[in-house]
Amino acid sequence: MNAETEFETRCGFVALIGAPNAGKSTLINQLVGAKVSIVSRKVQTTRSLVRGIAIEGKAQIIFVDTPGIFAPKRRLDRAMVSSAWGGAGDADAVALLVDARKGVDEEVEAILARLGQVGAAKILVLNKIDTVEPPRLLELAAKLNAELPFAETFMISALRGHGVLKLKQQLAALMPPGPWLYPEDQISDAPLRSLAAEITREKIFERLHDELPYQSTVETELWKDMPDGSARVEQTIYVMREGHKKIVIGEGGRTIKAIGTAARKEIMAAAEQTVHLFLFVKVRENWPDDPERYREMGLEFPKN
Ligand SMILES: Nc1nc2c(ncn2[C@@H]2O[C@H](COP(=O)(O)OP(=O)(O)OP(=O)(O)O)[C@@H](O)[C@H]2O)c(=O)[nH]1
């Protein structure tokens, strides 16, 4: 009996690779049909590997949402990049997402060079087709395929959902036969704690777009289920400077209150229980170079 007949189901991993802002989080949310990965206009928001799990027919597709791959400078950035490539190497398929409006730039070139060495099936996905004319799309597809032969090319709008189902069906067909690794109703294996931290981080970004650099992080320090069915959740927002702390707190605590209210609503919806959220702001100047933080984020501490 061969593997094809032994299992009726399929199950595998798809690594989503792309430059920052290519639309990876948006696509994963579309594919999974639920909010599992934060989406932001700010570059480089994805800090940890968040998996979304999609079901298509008899296939379970586990998406690895890789941190944006870009030229790393600081240690934290390098850790993110090596973690992303590690994910690609283990996957059954790699989907390269390219912002069609931006086209091929240095970042995409760098990704192509490394992608050539990855053994998994490679799929090209041109995203944001709602923003460009068809001739440019065809030109871009030809150019990229000339640089690296892709098994298939898709053209989608992750934002509008165009072409997403076809992509999902094709990815499902690429998954190896095997039993499902997750129960059917599970959409993400990101623990609730880290999902809650991502939600709060998103709320900070929404409010403090330009005032706060992305060097801030949120940690869920406590998630305690109470006897009445509610949860007490304590989170610390770490910033790098005293001045940033003032910005996050805002005048008379107004900003942090707004962040907390918005985050609490969304965390409650994700947890399906009443949540009492307590936010703290702390200055931790050197957090991007602290190995402990890497492990918490599921990243490897870079050796060099
Ligand atoms: N017009 C248009 N915008 C899109 C599309 N897909 C994503 N976007 C926008 O592109 C921006 C970046 O999307 P994200 O999903 O956060 O990108 P990402 O690749 O996950 O970004 P990082 O986490 O920084 O690596 C957001 O403003 C999205 O709304 C699309 O199909 N069309």
Word description of this protein:
The chain folds into two domains: 3-174, 3-Layer(aba) Sandwich (Rossmann fold), CATH 3.40.50; 192-296, K homology (KH) domain (GMP Synthetase, Chain A, domain 3, 2-Layer Sandwich). The protein has ten helices and nine strands. The protein has helices spanning 3-6, 24-32, 75-90, 106-115, 134-147, 164-174, 192-208, 242-249, 254-271, 291-296; strands spanning 10-18, 50-56, 59-65, 93-99, 121-127, 152-155, 217-225, 231-239, 275-283. A six-stranded mixed sheet has the order 2-3-1-4-5-6, sandwiched between helices. Helix 4 (106-115) links the parallel strand 4 and strand 5 (121-127). The radius of gyration is 20 Å and the shape is globular. The protein starts with a helix and ends in an 8-residue tail after the last helix. The structure holds guanosine-5'-triphosphate (GTP). Guanosine-5'-triphosphate (GTP) binds at residues 18, 20-26, 39-41, 43-46, 68, 127-128, 130-131, 157-159.
How much β-strand is present in the residues? Answer: 15-25%
CATH superfamily of the largest domain: P-loop containing nucleotide triphosphate hydrolases
Spans of at least 5 consecutive residues with low confidence: 38-48
Specify the overall morphology: globular
Question: How many domains make up the 3D coordinates?
Answer: 2
* Separate helix tally: 10
* Bound molecule kinds, no repeats: guanosine-5'-triphosphate
Biggest β-sheet: strands ordered side by side in the sheet: 2-3-1-4-5-6
Which CATH class of the largest domain? Alpha Beta
What structural category do the secondary elements indicate? Answer: alpha/beta
Query: Total number of β-strand segments?
Result: 9
The helix-strand sequence is HEHEEHEHEHEHHEEHHEH
Biggest pleated-sheet summary: 6 strands, mixed
What is the terminal separation in angstroms?
48 Å
How does CATH name the architecture of the largest domain? 3-Layer(aba) Sandwich
The averaged pLDDT comes out at: 80
